[in-house]
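Lab notebook, design round three. We kept the backbone fixed and only want residue identities now. Task for the bench partner: fill in a sequence for the structure below.
Input structure tokens:
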């Protein structure tokens, strides 16, 4: 039997990378040969966590069917966010906290999707249920994922369960939750090191919204000044990639992680869905989204509804 490959979504964020590592450990504790992989190198935020706890990044792969027939998915389930050859392998597990869309399998599987703020929160619970030891390293990884996904509990996706898990994990990991959390979030906001394409695509996801092909990126910043200097170049790139890839809509959500505020750049043939989703006029391909921080909860549902 081939080794189970464990991975999260394309354009990996901290939850995707760390949950793949922790889920691989969970499967190994159950006697399953498993390895975490990823579809790209970790972001600067994720690298901060990996370096802090001295853990190697998962091996980067492009496809999976060339080396295994069995895979476990974390932090996603939508096929267009997964391995490009996901149809050619057997999915044995899904551990996720997103909407379920376009997902089906031919074989039975272990599928656990909970409406919490982070995959790490679910994994922590799974370790405890099985009586598996949570090491300092695993605790640090799960903690980092929770901080990242909930923006240190300020996102509307945060739940009391995430916060309780983070407090418990911070103790095991031996870090001060607030200090470590702010440092982790800050590590992800350094735009100076990022190309325009990184800013646009490093955290972008594709969504099928009633037949429309919608791509939504998100970048974390502290203050909007620096990104505003680069808006014209980013908008140009968005237009190029929109026509190259045939997207109906391409939006970049720019989120100030300390102020919990966003604005969006948006391009596409018809921006009326975006306008009606947020009851705002798009002016010069820009729209303010005050108080919005969560793509999953505050962007995708209203936009999907607007396309209905
Ligand atoms: Mn994710
Ligand atoms: Mn997540």
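Proposed sequence:
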């Amino acid at each position: 039997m081939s080794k189970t490959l464990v991975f999260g979504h394309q354009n990996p964020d901290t939850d995707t990378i760390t949950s793949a590592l922790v889920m691989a450990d969970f499967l190994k504790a159950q006697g399953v040969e498993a390895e975490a992989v990823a579809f790209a190198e970790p972001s600067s935020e994720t690298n901060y966590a990996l370096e802090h706890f001295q853990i190697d990044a998962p091996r980067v792969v492009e496809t999976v069917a060339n080396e295994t027939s069995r895979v476990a998915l974390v932090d996603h389930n939508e096929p267009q966010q997964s391995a490009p050859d996901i149809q050619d392998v057997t999915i044995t597990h899904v551990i996720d906290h997103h909407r379920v869309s376009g997902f089906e399998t031919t074989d039975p599987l272990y599928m656990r999707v909970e409406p919490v703020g982070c995959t790490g929160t679910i994994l922590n619970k799974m370790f405890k249920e099985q009586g598996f030891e949570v090491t300092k390293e695993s605790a640090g990884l799960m903690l980092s994922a929770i901080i990242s996904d909930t923006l240190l509990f300020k996102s509307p996706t945060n739940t009391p369960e995430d916060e309780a898990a983070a407090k418990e994990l911070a103790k095991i990991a031996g870090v001060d939750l607030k200090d470590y959390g702010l440092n982790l979030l800050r590590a992800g906001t350094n735009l100076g090191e990022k190309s325009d394409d990184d800013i646009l695509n490093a955290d972008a996801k594709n969504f099928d919204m009633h037949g429309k092909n919608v791509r939504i990126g998100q970048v974390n910043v502290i203050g909007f000044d620096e990104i505003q200097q680069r808006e014209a170049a980013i908008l140009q790139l968005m237009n190029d990639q929109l026509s190259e890839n045939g997207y109906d809509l391409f939006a970049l959500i720019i989120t100030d992680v300390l102020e919990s505020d966003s604005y969006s750049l948006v391009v596409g043939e018809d921006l009326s869905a975006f306008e009606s989703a947020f009851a705002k006029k798009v002016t010069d391909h820009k729209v303010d989204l005050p108080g919005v921080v969560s793509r999953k909860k505050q962007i995708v549902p209203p936009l999907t509804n607007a396309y209905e």
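Keep this in mind before ordering anything: The domain at 191-307 is CATH 3.10.310.20 (Diaminopimelate Epimerase; Chain A, domain 1).
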